Recover the amino acids of this structure.
């Protein structure tokens, strides 16, 4: 018997040694690099039309991850919504700065990176960075035209990228599961202009990549053939919200009881265009509104969603919020009633933090004007328009509460979740 346990102990020791060695190898090796890289020799023509189109698409694809409110540019920030099992992840500076941004990248290097996931330095980017193999050639060149423009979002800024810390799982996936996507041999064509289902599919799968969050798991998504993703649009993917709380994505298949089968076209428009649920509370981060999409484009997405096979998958309960305050206020109740914490967090420090709200808006009236119709002040902002949803008598106490959150958060440590 002693000999038996001794043998078992030796076997376990060898197994643990092998596991430890494998983990050590992953840490040292990092993400794979590729030497046989053939980037296209393309110089994108920058036209006003392409810059406008590129800005629209970049607002859908790049803004939420790369926009830094401290610089008002796409200079990168901490990505709190990425599950911690992938590590501690930061987005990068993609402004035109030649030292710390992408100002010294060629157009071909940018196009190749967006399509394949292979960086300028030939290193494969981990699976949490989306790739865009199905975006049309004209649209992806428009993104490059926008990045090359004098738009304030991409104006050169010297922000230095914060070094990220991918997990062992991220290294494993990058080396053994996910592979770089092959660069297209022929130009990807846009959908037919008279086919709303094809147009909706193009926006949902090809451009925005709605399936990436709304399918079962990032690890089992198929970026080349989205329909092959496990639990395609059935939801259940575990993410984090603005305060670092666990949240599971919604089932958006046309299932009547667990999906959006009972949603009308106007309900869908209200959610994607206005960023509000059917009860008029804010959609919870990381779900964003899409003010850059036209009503016809959102309607096309809705039309496409209706063609997806329904999946019965009740949404898992996410960590919820309750308004708890030693000195509760009317403004606090309103803040929670409409789900303002969805983006601003419980303490005003979220992905859209309120740190400077009490300074930026010198009076309650200024802040109320912003809350009521932010798009009038900053066209295309992701902030919902609350005029007509929040009751008129609720704006003043809400503004007072928000300004107080700003004062409080100014002196509080900004903890990364």
């Amino acid at each position: 018997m002693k000999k038996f346990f001794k043998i078992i102990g030796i076997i376990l020791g060898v197994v643990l040694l092998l596991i430890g060695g494998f983990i050590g190898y992953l840490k040292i090796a990092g993400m794979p690099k590729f030497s046989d890289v053939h980037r296209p020799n393309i110089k994108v023509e920058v036209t006003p039309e392409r810059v406008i189109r590129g800005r629209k698409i970049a607002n859908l694809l790049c803004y939420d991850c790369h926009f830094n409110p401290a610089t008002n540019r796409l200079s990168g920030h901490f990505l709190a919504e990425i599950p911690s099992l992938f590590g501690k992840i930061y987005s990068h500076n993609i402004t035109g700065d030649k030292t710390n941004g992408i100002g010294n990248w060629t157009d071909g290097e940018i196009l190749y990176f967006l399509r394949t996931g292979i960086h300028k330095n030939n290193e494969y980017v981990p699976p949490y960075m989306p790739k865009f193999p199905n975006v049309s050639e004209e649209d992806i060149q428009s993104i490059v035209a926008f990045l090359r423009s004098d738009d304030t979002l991409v104006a050169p800024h010297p922000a230095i990228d914060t070094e990220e810390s991918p997990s062992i799982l991220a290294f494993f996936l990058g080396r053994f599961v996910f592979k770089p996507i092959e660069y297209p041999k022929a130009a990807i064509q846009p959908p037919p202009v008279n086919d709303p289902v094809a147009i909706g599919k193009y926006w949902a799968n090809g451009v925005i990549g709605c399936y990436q969050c709304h399918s079962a798991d990032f690890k089992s998504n198929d970026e080349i053939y989205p329909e092959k993703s496990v639990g395609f649009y059935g939801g259940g993917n575990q993410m984090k919200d603005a305060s670092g709380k666990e949240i599971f994505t919604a089932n958006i298949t046309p299932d009547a009881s667990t999906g959006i089968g009972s949603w009308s076209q106007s309900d869908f428009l209200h959610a994607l265009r206005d960023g509000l649920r059917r009860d008029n509370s804010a959609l919870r981060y990381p779900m964003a509104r899409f003010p850059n999409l036209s009503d016809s484009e959102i309607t096309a997405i809705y039309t496409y969603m209706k063609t997806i096979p329904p999946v019965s998958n009740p949404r898992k309960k996410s960590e919820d919020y309750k308004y708890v305050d030693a000195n509760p206020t009317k403004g606090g109740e309103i803040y929670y009633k409409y789900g303002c914490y969805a983006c601003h967090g419980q303490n005003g420090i979220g992905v859209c933090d309120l740190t400077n709200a009490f300074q930026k808006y010198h009076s309650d009236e200024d802040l109320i004007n912003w809350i009521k119709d932010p798009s009038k002040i900053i066209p295309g902002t992701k902030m919902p328009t609350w005029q007509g949803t929040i009751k008129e008598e609720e704006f003043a106490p809400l503004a007072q509460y928000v300004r107080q959150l700003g004062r409080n958060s100014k002196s509080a440590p900004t903890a990364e979740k």
Observations:
- The beta strands are 87-88, 165-166, 238-240, 246-248.
- DSSP finds 16 helices and four strands in the chain.
